[in-house]
Amino acid sequence: MNETTNLLIGIAMGLNLLALGSSRLPTLILAMSAQGVVLGLMPLLIVEPPDWRVLLVAVATVAGKGLVIPHLLRRAMRTAHIDREVEPFIGFVPSLLLGAGGTIAAVAVARTLPLLPEHSGSLLVPGSLASVLTGFVLLIGRAKAISQVCGYLILENGIYLFGLLLIHSTPLLVESGILLDVTVGVFIIGIIVDRIQRAFDSLDTRKLTALRE
Amino acid sequence: MTPGVPLLFSAACLLGGVVCGPRRARTWLALTLAGAAGALGAALLVLGGAPDWEWRHGFAVGGETLHFRLDGLSALFLALLGLVAGTGAIYAQEYWPEAHYPASAPGGRSWWCGLVLGMGLVLVSANGLHFLIAWELFTVCAFFLITLDRQRREVRKAGWLYLAASHAGTVCLFAFFATLAARTGSWEIGPLRGRLDCAPLFWLALAGFGVKAGLFPLHIWLPAAHAGAPSHVSAILSAVAVKMGVYGLIRFSGWLPAPAAAGWVVTGLGAVSALFGIAFALAQNDLKRLLAYCTVENVGIILTGLGAAMLGAAHGDAPWGRLALAGALLHVWNHGAVKALLFFGAGSVLHATGTREMSRLGGLWRAMPWTASLFALGAVAIAGLPPLNGFVSEWLVCLGLFDAATRPGPSAWAATPAAMVLAVAGALALATFAKAAAIVFLGAARTRSAEHAHECGALMRGPMLALAALCLALGLAPVWFWPAIARAAGAWNPAWAGREPPAPLAILGPLQGMLALLAVAAAAGLWWKSRANGWRRGLTWDCGYAHPSARMQYTSGSFAGIAAGWFGWLLRPERRIRRPRGPLPAAASWMERVPETVLERVLGPAGRALLRLSSAARRLQHGRVQAYILYVVAGLLAVGTLVLLGGMP
Q: What's the sign of the alpha-carbon dihedral B168, B171, B175, B177?
């Protein structure tokens, strides 16, 4: 089980770098949703044997992060006529370097954390920290609202990954509640993106500085 | 009769004055005079020997039940308040009449009553919360009185400065009273000499009351407010409102145990205020600003006496401490009476000529003999010359310091330099008032407006005469006033409650009387002799020229030039000089201005630096979401690092 989960987390960490390095919005969305699917499968591997509730959560996560949210984002992109370029503040190479450095730092930091013995060999904690950092880099370094939503979702994936540490003690209701929150959040952001587009004729968040006092 | 009856009467009259002030000038005058007389009567009853008045009532204001107390110390200040409130009200009738100031005179009358009522409540409140309410009431009333002439920009500026400085002080007072209430468990204030844990609170009180009292580095509001306010307001500000700060300091240094260093600090601050205050006064060119800085000096003298008294009380209730305290308390009265007289005199000059600039006045004694002679009397008194009252109190303070200096012990180290500084300040005060009286009243008129000056009317002259008579009485027969001073000193420190006057005071009265007789005889002899030889009138400074012109006289700057030069490092005068050059020189000029050093050289730059820092910090808030997230991440990382480095077990 440990090797499989570590493999999946490794794939997720690779997707982080893909998200950081992609210059086109569809690729970014794809990387984000693929990461969601990969992580959605994790509970099935961790909880053995998987009961029906874990199955339900996994299916819901995969469906939400892999299908519903990307669909919402693509539709928002289409209706708002957004260019497909990402428009970075922080260039792709520096972003990648930041992401790679962050991943190495996450592995290093995770070694110093006082973890339970059964978690010490897994990549759960470094993977989650690396995803959170990637999410932050995307949030800070990208100009368009859609790419920021993707950054936020990757950050959420990191938090979700961290939450898997507690899967034995967290009620599944909480997990599904979080998932619902995220989906609704993206839904609302899709609407807001449309509104911003209409009001500013652009989705460039730099233009939102006009709203400050 | 219990003092409560006149006090209640006085409060009712003043409330009536607040209400009817805007409409009925005569009713207002009658009510204010009755209120002032009631306050004065109550104070004199207590000072004359009636027991302390204390009154409680279940009615709650702000959650605290009413509690008033009038003891010797508050009665001393209440008497001064009654005196200046009454004389100022009469003076204002002619000085600030409705005919000339239809917009501000009606409001001014109400604020006057509010101010007097507020200060009276401060004096009788025995509850910290009510003390603060009254304190705020009188601060706000004083603001509106200072800005009566608010069409002028400088007056508005002075008013805002006063309000800001006062509230900076009030913050300290809030902290002081709130902490005191938290420690004692009640807002009631009274003698707490045994509560040693309350001693550090004295520093808060020193800062809070020090702003109002105009202690040297905290005096920033004082010169501009006194100069910009109408003269009757300047008089009550300087004579009474500033004394409220002094009252607070004396009150709470007596009621609370003082920290060990307090006596030293108060003595030092007092001496510094006295010296620097008079140095600034000497360099001023504005008559009312000069008087305002002189107030800083006199507060310094009072606080030097108080500091010495605190040292004396800390060293086993030494008798020299009692002398210094008596001097300080008597100086409260003396300075109040003299400074009100001088501000009335300055107001009379301003009323007659329309300017406070001494370099535009001159030769006024011919047109205004009453004002000139009364101002000269006040100048002699405040310069601390015998046989007038300023000498008596300053002498008592100095005697206390001399006594302390000759005794073995550490207090000699504080008393010796303080006595020396007071002596220097006295000499400079003499120079300052020689300058003020000479430049304004002697010589020839420097401008047309000074030539066409006129004497003030009876309503302005009367209050000045009354105050001058009081100054004479305080100077010639100080023993009459001793019981009152002894009562107040007893309220400060029960160990010093004795009624018998100290020996130096008993012999001082006859000596002063003889000196006065001698002076009168010398003046009469001089007059008789010069009459016998025939008059020859000339300008005061004709410098040997046959036809001197008014422009050849000393100016206020040149009169004080040498002495002000000694303090150049402190005063930092700004000069603009255009010297005559070449064979046919163009017009030459010499302009000199003494800045408000503390305000313009210390507080101003500090404030501007703070503003620059703040606007730099404001650039952090620019509306870019990405950067805001960066702040959050940076903060999280910083906290995380802290936890990793320091918080791990």
A: positive
Which three-class secondary structure string do you get for B402-467? HHHHHCCCCHHHHHHHHHHHHHHHHHHHHHHHHHHHHHHHCCCCCCHHHHCCCCCCHHHHHHHHHH
Q: Least CB-CB distance to B623: which of A114, A141, A212? A: A212
Average pLDDT, integer, range B111-117: 96
Residue of B228, B230, B217, B200 whose CA lies nearest to B300: B217
Task: Identify which of B159, B115, B2 has the alpha carbon closest to the alpha carbon of residue B68.
Answer: B2
Opening angle at CA B196, ends B195 and B198, nearest 5:
75
- The predicted-structure confidence for A54-92, as pLDDT tens digits, reads as follows 888 888 888 888 888 888 888 888 877 777 777 788 888
Instruction: Check if A212 contacts B (Cβ < 8 Å).
Output: yes
User: In B, which residues are within 8 Å of A212 by CB distance?
Assistant: 621-623
Q: Residues A164, A15: contact at Cβ < 8 Å?
A: no
- List the single residue in A114, A205, A212 with the smallest CB-CB distance to B622: A212
Contact B627 A140 (CB under 8 A): yes
Domain ranges of chain A: 2-207
Query: Which amino acid is located at A152 in the chain?
Result: Y
Contact B626 A205 (CB under 8 A): yes
Q: What is the pLDDT of residues B125-151, one digit of tens each?
A: 999 999 999 999 999 999 999 999 989
Residue B524: CA count within 13 A, CB half-sphere: 6
Helices (H), A47-171: 52-63, 69-79, 92-112, 124-141, 145-163
Per-residue pLDDT at B622: 76
Min distance A206 CA to chain B CA atoms (Å): 6
Copy the structure tokens of residue A196.
């911003």
Nearest CA in chain B to A152: B629
For residue A41, the model assigns a pLDDT of 87
The predicted-structure confidence for B219-264, as pLDDT tens digits, reads as follows 999 999 999 999 999 999 999 999 999 999 999 999 999 898 999 9
Residue B392 has pLDDT above 80, yes or no: yes
Q: How far is B163 from chain A (nearest CA, A)?
A: 30
Asked whether the whole model's pTM tops 0.90, one would answer no
**ipTM attached to this prediction:** 0.81
Contact B629 A211 (CB under 8 A): no
Q: Which residues of B459-470 are buried (b: 16+ CB within 10 A; e: fewer)?
A: ebbbbbebbbeb
Q: Does the beta-carbon distance from A140 to B624 stay under 8 Å?
A: no
Query: In angstroms, rounded to a whole number, what is the distance separating the alpha carbons of residues B293 and B281?
Result: 5
Identify the residue among A95, A115, A140 best suited for mutation to test binding to B, counting B beta carbons within 10 A and taking the highest. A140
- pLDDT tens-digit profile of B569-626? 888 888 889 999 889 888 888 888 888 888 888 999 999 999 999 999 888 887 777 8
Determine the average pLDDT of the residues in B73-78. 95
List CB contacts of A65: < 8 A, sequence separation 6 or more. A33, A35, A36, A37, A39, A40, A153, A157, A179, A182
β-partners of residue A142 are: A88
Task: Kindly determine whether residue A206 and residue B621, on different chains, have CB atoms separated by under 8 Å.
Answer: no
Q: Does A24 touch chain B (CB under 8 A)?
A: no
Q: How far apart are CA A187 and CA B407, in angstroms?
A: 88
